Amino acid sequence: MDRVLSGIRPTGYLHLGNYFGALKNFVRMQEENNCYFFIADYHSLTTHPKPGDLGTNIKNVLVDYLAAGLDPEKCTIYIQSDVPEVCELTLLLAMNVYVGELQRVPSFKEKVRRQPNNVNAGLLTYPILMASDILIHRADKVPVGKDQEQHLELTRDFAQRFNHFYGVDYFKLPVAYNFGDHLVKIPGLDGSTKMSKSDNEASCIFLSDSPELIRKKVMKAVSDSGPTEPGQPKSQAVENLFQLMEAVSSPDTLAFFEEAYQKCEIRYGDMKKQLAEDITSFVAPIHERIMTLRNDDDYLRKVAKLGAEKARESASKTVNDVREIIGIRKL
Ligand code: ADP
Ligand code: TRP
């Protein structure tokens, strides 16, 4: 049985990108694997959330996870900070990670460029914490979107380095995972190639959006003035609409609009109306469950407690093994 793990930072509600990149496959995988899914609240501290917002976002993400189909009976759902063992493993791994290689990580360089006033050490060491999340449960597979590929590569580097340094074969080398042969990237409604709440909230459809809001957002999505000759390549914004349609609509619907585009007969208004309808049908059952779960604090507390117990059991075993390997032994 494979061990599967993934996590999402609690920075707001979950959107379609999170669903297709990280959650959808996970929901399928929980049936046959030993699965861990967590809320990466330590990771979210790099952006200095207000304390009140952090608590609300943790709850919202837990609700979205459950509504999207994660089942606490089938997998371990937990909040990262309920498992402090991950901090110890981060410290221990950090001794064999070099500052230069962390400074060269593309996502770190991007943050330095974007937020020059908040280049905190947590940003630099982010990949070590993420490696600990994964290695602490000795995961084989990590369902994530394409943007996380590099972090997974670093996790493998750190794991391999540890094994080599101590002459053991302890950590497995986890792989980024998605069904099909490529990692998914769901585009934004704003013409950008990635739906992302940290880049632009307006690019996102959240799982908790009402049908009215979905319609409004989709109708406002960026497009262009339409093709003028057959076979004309699509602009990024229009390509995005097609990609979103591919994710939520039937193949027939997609083929219909593709043909209309190729014949220069496409009306983006009609396409958006259809897309809005298909996104709404897709999100509706999840939306409904979100509304119910939001009011059930007792149940949410129970889920978090059970998850923390299961996750700590697995995490503390790894930390004890690692202590032993590196020579921290009882007198
Ligand atoms: P955001 O970019 O909105 O802040 P996160 O960085 O919190 O989202 O992403 C959490 C998870 O969702 C990660 O596994 C990431 O790869 C996945 N993910 C986020 N956006 C997308 C997207 N547009 N397409 C596919 N996967 C995505
Ligand atoms: N870095 C991931 C993100 O920004 C979140 C994350 C933290 C994660 N630890 C993880 C994802 C471990 C998968 C596995 O989306």
Largest sheet: 3 strands, parallel
Helix % is 55-70%
Assess the beta-strand content as a share of residues.
5-15%
Distance between the termini: 36 Å
Which terms would index this structure?
mainly alpha; two-stranded parallel sheet; three-stranded parallel sheet; 331 residues; globular; binds tryptophan; 5 strands; single chain; binds adenosine-5'-diphosphate
Give a written overview of the molecule.
The protein is globular and about 80 Å long. Helices cover about 55% and strands about 5% of the residues. The strands form 2 sheets. Strands 1-2-3 form a 3-stranded parallel β-sheet. A two-stranded parallel sheet has the order 4-5. It has 13 helices and 5 strands. It is mostly helical. Strand 4, helix 8 and strand 5 form a beta-alpha-beta unit. The structure holds adenosine-5'-diphosphate and tryptophan. Tryptophan binds next to strand 1 and helix 7.
Helix and strand topology:
Blueprint: E1 3-8, H1 16-29, E2 34-39, H2 41-44, H3 51-68, E3 76-79, H4 85-94, H5 99-103, H6 106-114, H7 121-135, E4 141-143, H8 149-166, E5 175-177, H9 211-219, H10 236-248, H11 251-262, H12 268-293, H13 297-326
Parallel strand pairs: 1-2, 2-3, 4-5
What's the short version?
The chain has 331 residues and is mainly alpha-helical. The protein has helices spanning 16-29, 41-44, 51-68, 85-94, 99-103, 106-114, 121-135, 149-166, 211-219, 236-248, 251-262, 268-293, 297-326, and strands at residues 3-8, 34-39, 76-79, 141-143, 175-177. Strand 1, helix 1 (16-29) and strand 2 (34-39) form a beta-alpha-beta unit.
